[in-house]
Design goal:
Blueprint (H helix, E strand, L loop, with lengths): L2 H8 L10 E3 L7 E2 L6 E10 L10 H18 L3 E11 L4 H17 L3 E9 L3 E10 L15 E5 L4 H9 L7 H12 L5 H7 L3 E6 L4 H12 L2 E5 L7 H6 L2 H10 L6 E5 L7 H5 L6 E8 L5 E5 L2 E2 L13
Parallel strand pairs: 4-5, 9-12
Antiparallel strand pairs: 1-2, 3-6, 4-6, 7-10, 7-11, 8-10, 9-11, 12-13
Helix pairs in contact: 2-3, 2-6, 4-5
């Protein structure tokens, strides 16, 4: 199948259609309309087989994750997603695989009212690059640099599930039944916290999503805000499934250091803390306070039952070149 036949057959039609897309797939560029009194947030992420997803992962999950990680970046800035473009590199064309991939892609974009407006397809090693764009009211973008000592530290959802799910798929962790299904799904089908991100614009001082692990991603906020943090390990939100398949020490390890959860880490000032529950009330997302920021620049102090705690292994994932 030729490139333009592939695009026409699988990507030119279908999916969510937005009124602010003037020209979509089929021309040299997409043309869109940015609403008045809105700023445009733009993010790009590349996923490579064997690095960001297992080579034998289901096509639907690959598409879902590629979209979700970009929407998660928008959520961490408090942006409402609008459009994505996709660059897809395939070693060969398997129509059954592509049909499943497109199904996963459109399932998530439909849910979040996001339109695919363009991109590219090439033959090569399996990789996907998505650029996502969304809207933010002027001056309300959540940034990593606005946290201050004394701010309270929160996370959404539960932590460590996706890392455990990956280990299950790689036979590094044994799990059965509902617990296995839950943890594997958390790895393959992450949930971008879009509603929580937009709600937090009114209350959070800084925010980031958990892609490389809690401690690794928290360090970005601390570095850019010039703060430190005290994290209470015993307050980390850990799912029932993760507690069931590991001992508590291993669960702490996953929650602190494993990536791919795509939950939000955010900070809230003492003055705004009372408004947090109200801000998140309509999102159906639970947030847990796990500590507080300090004035010790870029230092993360871990405590377990108010006693010093030492992480036994490396914290977080980082690409090496």
């Amino acid at each position: 199948m030729k490139e333009f036949d592939l695009i026409g057959r699988y990507f030119s039609e279908g999916g969510h259609q937005r009124k602010d897309v003037v020209v979509g797939i089929g021309d040299d560029c997409a043309v869109t309309t940015v609403a008045e009194n809105q700023q445009l947030a733009v993010t790009t992420d590349t996923l490579v087989a064997g690095v960001h997803f297992l080579a034998d992962a289901p096509a639907r999950s690959i598409a879902h994750k590629a979209v979700a990680v970009n929407l998660s970046d928008l959520a961490a800035m408090g942006a409402e997603p609008a459009w994505i473009s996709l660059s897809l590199s395939l070693p060969e064309l398997q129509e059954s695989w592509l049909e499943e991939f497109v199904s996963g892609l459109y399932e998530l974009t439909q849910y979040y009212s996001v339109q695919l407006i363009g991109g590219d397809t090439v033959r090569g090693p399996m990789a996907l690059t998505i650029t996502a764009q969304g809207f933010i009211p002027p001056g309300s973008a959540l940034q990593r640099s606005q946290a201050r000592p004394g701010d309270w530290l929160y996370v959404t959802g539960t932590l460590g599930d996706a890392g455990a799910g990956l280990d299950i798929l790689q036979d590094k962790l044994i799990a059965q039944g509902e617990e296995r299904d839950f943890l594997v799904k958390r790895h393959q089908y992450p949930t971008p916290r879009v509603a929580a991100g937009t709600a937090l614009r009114r209350t959070a001082s800084a925010c980031i999503d958990v892609s490389d692990g809690l401690l690794a991603d928290l360090s970005h906020i601390l570095r850019q805000s010039g703060c430190g943090a005290c994290v209470h390990v015993d307050k980390l939100p850990i799912s029932r499934a993760l507690r069931h398949v590991t001992d508590i020490e291993q669960a702490y390890q996953y929650a602190l250091a494993a990536g791919d959860d795509y939950e939000l880490i955010f900070t809230v000032s003492e003055e705004q803390r009372g408004n947090l529950e109200t801000s998140l009330a309509s999102t159906n997302v639970k947030a847990t306070c796990i500590g507080q920021l300090t004035g010790h620049r870029e230092n993360i102090e871990l405590k377990l039952n108010n006693q010093p705690y030492r992480l036994p292994a490396k914290a977080g994932y980082e690409h090496e070149f």
